[in-house]
Write a structure and sequence with these properties.
The complex is a heterodimer of chains A (148) and B (119). Chain A has 148 residues and is mostly helical. Chain A is built from five helices and no strands. Chain A has one domain. Chain A is elongated. Helices cover 78% and strands 0% of the residues of chain B. Chain B is built from four helices and no strands. In chain B, helix 1 packs parallel to helix 4. The chains are: A mainly alpha (148), B mainly alpha (119).
């Protein structure tokens, strides 16, 4: 198994974990309770995983374009276009998660409404991330690094 | 609930108002960035008269359009966040935040649908 294939697998796993980790702050912040230490970790973890997944994806995109993308479009043009869709939604999930995390951290303890709003933005990030994960699995199962 | 006065003589009140404003600005970033991104994508599709993207062109492009789109969307989101912090921090940030939260829930449905429609 070559390095790029390993990185692709790590990227996928980080994406799945990131999507799951976004659900946690959605539930915990839904009623607007102040951030405890554990809640801060939960909120930060989702953002960390999503950011790592996106950064890794961008890191090996050049190799992906050179080695995989052409074959992906040749094999199934519709799945090739779904890869583009995945990119759009990953940016959406990333920015929604950043906005929600910063809002949750910055809201003062006596502002439950702002944390409730952050929970709803986390929910939107979660939905986008889940769609990204589903599309990512579909694309990777069609064509990936090292696949014959 | 009326937010603390950002121009108050009391430093604690100013700090509270500043934090509320910053939190609201972060929510604006979260909501505005993906909307700005999708507006750009819709504009690109409208220039192409709704044509399905050409795989040959996608393969030849060096991904620059994605980076530009993301950067421009982030720039707009940042600008709107600064405007929100400047003008809205003295308002009822709780209610404004909840409005943004509801907008985000609509986006949770709208963004995947638009992204699938405009690949």
């Amino acid at each position: 198994m070559n390095t790029l294939r390993v990185l692709e697998r790590i990227h996928g796993h980080l994406g799945v974990l990131g999507a799951a980790a976004l659900l946690h702050p959605t539930i915990l912040l839904w009623k607007g309770q102040p951030l405890s230490r554990r809640l801060r970790i939960a909120v930060g973890l989702g953002l960390l995983l999503i950011t790592a997944a996106l950064a890794l994806g961008l890191f090996f995109y050049g190799d992906y374009r050179a080695l995989v993308k052409r074959e992906l479009f040749t094999e199934n043009p519709m799945v090739g276009l779904l890869f583009e869709t995945k990119e759009h939604l990953s940016y959406a999930a990333f920015t929604l998660a950043w906005g929600a995390t910063l809002a949750a951290f910055l809201a003062p303890p006596d502002a439950p409404g702002l944390r409730r709003a952050a929970a709803r933005v986390f929910a939107a990030a979660f939905v986008c991330a889940v769609v990204v994960v589903v599309l990512g699995v579909w694309v990777a199962s069609t064509r990936s690094f090292g696949a014959s | 609930m009326k937010a603390p006065d950002p121009h108050s003589a009391d430093p604690a009140s100013r700090h509270q108002a500043s934090r509320r404003g910053a939190s609201l600005a972060a929510l604006v970033v979260g909501v505005a960035a993906p909307v700005a991104y999708m507006v750009q994508r819709a504009f690109e599709i409208s220039i192409a008269h709704g044509a399905t993207p050409n795989p040959a062109l996608i393969l030849r492009s060096a991904h620059a359009s994605f980076y530009w789109r993301a950067m421009i969307a982030s720039w707009w989101a940042g600008l709107l966040a600064i405007a929100a912090w400047h003008w809205l921090r003295a308002q009822d940030t709780e209610t404004l935040g909840l409005v943004l939260g509801r907008v985000a829930l609509v986006l949770a449905v709208l963004l995947p649908a638009l992204a699938l429609w405009l690949p």
